[in-house]
Specification:
alpha+beta, Thrombin, subunit H, six-stranded antiparallel barrel
């Protein structure tokens, strides 16, 4: 039976509404999808921006940490340098050698033989000791006493230079730090010095004075001796003459008999030359 006209109108209206609903739904879904896509893009952009900002801040923080570490190291170096300068200033201005003496004396030794006694000091790692040749002259036995009160009965003679009055010995120990030789070309008249040694059997005694003159001539004709008014007595021979930097600038050698404050020490540059010559003859290489 054919549809009546009002039935067709109703069906057409419903179809139109259905199509309109579908178009509206599609449009609505498209708008939602577009908005979500836009939101996701914005969120991703925000995340990217946040990551970039975070990485930038991390880089800045790392740079700040590195700069702080560098500044701390520099500050530590400056503090160490300042401590050293303060020690030198105290030693030169107020005659306070206590800090220098405390370190240097641990490298000084007492030498006792069956004919005499004297002093010496560690000059290189491995237990190498320098002293005056006349300290061990004619000896058949020797003992070396270190600052820690250890007595070393086994002593090797590496060699000696009688003209320069230098002998190089060795003990079987690597526990002692060597003293540092200064450059005797830089010594100035009037600078303060200390002598450490074993005067008259008084072990590890210290006397203070100044450099009175330079390039004095010794009995060997060498003009390489420092004149000092630091008290030197029998037993000081072979001990170090030390400046305000804690460096050895001479080895105490002799004094003028029946005189006051006229002591002489062989300059450190000669010590180095002679010790290396002795070591070269024994082992074919330099020691210091």
């Amino acid at each position: 039976m054919p549809l009546k006209r009002h039935h067709k109108i109703i069906i057409g209206g419903v179809s139109f509404l259905l199509v309109l609903f579908m178009v509206a739904s599609s449009l609505f879904m498209y708008m939602i999808f577009t908005k979500q896509t836009t939101d996701v893009t914005q969120i991703n952009q925000k995340i990217t921006n946040l990551q970039t900002d975070t990485q930038t801040k991390l880089n800045e923080l790392s740079t700040s940490i590195l700069e702080a570490e560098t500044e701390l190291k520099s500050l530590g170096s400056q503090i160490g340098s300042l401590d050293s300068e303060m020690t030198q200033l105290k030693a030169s201005a107020s005659s306070d050698f206590s800090g220098i003496i405390e370190e240097a004396v641990e490298s000084v030794v007492t030498i006792k033989t069956d004919v005499a006694q004297g002093s010496g000091f560690i000059i290189a790692d491995g237990g190498y000791i320098v002293t005056n040749a006349h300290v061990i002259e004619g000896a058949t036995a020797a003992q070396i006493i270190t600052y820690d009160e250890e007595t070393h009965n086994t002593v090797w003679m590496i060699g000696q230079d009688e003209n320069m009055d230098i002998a190089l010995l060795k003990i079987e120990s690597s526990d002692y730090s060597p003293l540092t030789l200064g450059d005797s070309d830089n010594i100035q008249i009037g600078e303060k010095v200390i002598a450490i040694g074993n005067p008259l059997g008084l072990q590890f005694s210290v006397s203070e004075g100044i450099v009175s003159a330079l390039n004095r001539e010794g009995d060997n004709g060498v003009e390489g001796y420092i004149q000092t008014d630091a008290a030197l007595n029998s037993g000081n021979s072979g001990g170090p003459l030390i400046n305000v930097e804690g460096k050895v600038i001479g080895i105490n050698n002799f004094k003028i008999s029946d005189s006051e404050n006229l002591g002489f020490a062989l300059e450190s540059n000669y010590i180095k030359e002679v010790v290396n010559d002795i070591f070269q003859q024994a082992y074919g290489t330099d020691l210091i």
